[in-house]
Amino acid sequence: MVPVDIDASMETVLKYFFPSESQATTLFDPVVLQDTAEAYYRQISAFISKESLMEPASDNVFGSITFSENRLTIHPSVSQSMVGLLGACILLTAVGLFIVPAHGFLPHSPSTFLCSISLFLYSRDLLPRFRYAGASDNNHFARWLRPSTFESGLAYDSVSGESQFCVNIDTKDGYQIERRHQFPQISSNSYHPIILHPVSRSLLCLSVVGLIISLELLLRKSNLEYGLGNVSNDDNMYRHYAWTAIPAIVLGALSITYSAVDFQIRMLTPYMALKGYVSKDIFMRLELLDMSIPVAIYHEFKFRNPWALATTVALFFASLFTTLSASLFQELSIPSTTSILLQADRSFDFSRILYDVETAAEISSLILEGNLSFPHSTFNDMAFPQFIPVSNLPEADTHFNASTVSISTVVPAVRGRMDCRSYEPARIHTNITLNQTRVGVTNPLDVLIDGEDCNLYIDGNNIEIETSPLTTYVGQVLTLSGEGQCSDLVYIWGKIDYGANPVIQHIDAMGCNVTFETVDVNTTFIGTDLNLDFQKPPTTTNRQHSTTHY
Question: What is the value of pTM for the model shown?
Answer without folding.
Answer: 0.42
